[in-house]
Amino acid sequence: MRHTLPLTPQFYVTAPQPCPYLEGRMERKLFTSLSVEGAARLNDTLSKQGFRRSQNVLYRPSCADCAACLSARIDVAAFSPTKSQRRTSKRNADLRRRATSPWATEEQYELFRDYLEERHAEGGMADMDVFEFAAMIEETPIRSRVIEYVHPERGLTAAALTDVLDDGLSMVYSFYDPDRQADSLGTYMILDHIDIAREAGLPYVYLGYWVPGSPKMGYKAKFKGLELYVGGRWNKMRDPADYDAERHPLKTDPIAEQVANISLPDLRSPRG
Predict the structure, then answer these.
(1) For 80-92, what is each residue's pLDDT tens digit?
(2) What are the start-end ranges of the E strands in 34-126?
(3) 90 with 24, same domain?
(4) Same domain, 56 and 149
């Protein structure tokens, strides 16, 4: 019997659960599986519409009465570092970049655990074991890399799981040595990904979501050339103070309307 992957992605909605960014709110996600023909094309197309990848799933916030989470990306051509970001690059000049295939290692997992226990001990990933970590890194149907940052004496210091899109790099998840928090390693990895994208001729670096009112997300607003996906299009970020996280039942379109407005690629395999 021959089994084939579906050509048309199906969309689903998660059950509400506590929001990790804004206290007292509930989050809900619209998602679809990447287990379809042309997974890379689907990932490329939906990433341009505010979706993010987690293993074999693409998702986008779709909360019932809140639209605070905004997909963010950096326009590489419009970026220039601030004085603080230049200091961050100099402070981490001793690190060496090492790009590897998406294959989990014990060294990565140990660093990941240290990072979670110090930075996100109450988060949804806090109980992730080594097998779940390996799945996060390795279960990818598209072109992905692990970008490691290695210190000549301390060894692995930071790492980012990164997808290579047709128009940029998407930083799926990053983690670093919590003992070097003062070195702004999260910012440094973004700066280095901007360099990688520029060298590869890719116009964007996708950062995930920026949430006004969330201290965890404040650092993203400090990058020049930042764009936000608002109202179905990418716009240059205005003054961060212009955005709010107020609730309103009309801020989010009905699920059926959201799905109807999603542009999908032609996933049929080209005929030879």
Answers:
(1) 999 999 999 999 9
(2) 52-54, 57-61, 70-75, 96-100
(3) no
(4) no
CB 6 within 8 Å of CB 37: yes
Strands 26-27 and 155-164: unpaired
33, 10 Cβ separation under 8 angstroms = yes
Band of residue 119 on the pLDDT scale cut at 50, 70, 90 = confident
Question: Torsions phi, psi of 194, nearest 5?
Answer: -65, -40
Domains of the chain: total: 2
Q: Which residue has the higher pLDDT, 258 or 74?
A: 74
Do both 198 and 97 map to the same domain?
Answer: yes
Distance CA 227, CA 78 (A): 10
Whether residues 82 and 63 fall in one domain: no
CA dist 75 and 231 (Å) reads 18
User: pTM of the predicted model, to two decimals?
Assistant: 0.91
Both 23 and 119 in a single domain?
Answer: no
CATH number of the domain enclosing 180: 3.40.630.30
Angstrom distance (rounded) from CA 104 to CA 101: 9
- Backbone Cα Rg of the chain: 19
Q: Are residues 170 and 78 both part of a single domain? A: yes
**Which structural domain, as residue segments, surrounds residue 112?**
72-237
Q: CA-CA distance, 173 to 229, in Å (whole number)? A: 19
260 pLDDT above the threshold of 60: yes
* 2, 63, 124, 131, 188 from 75: Cα distances, Å: 44, 27, 30, 35, 17
pLDDT at 202: 98
User: Considering the domain boundaries, does residue 2 fall inside one?
Assistant: no
The neighbour count for residue 158, using CB atoms within 10 Å, is 25
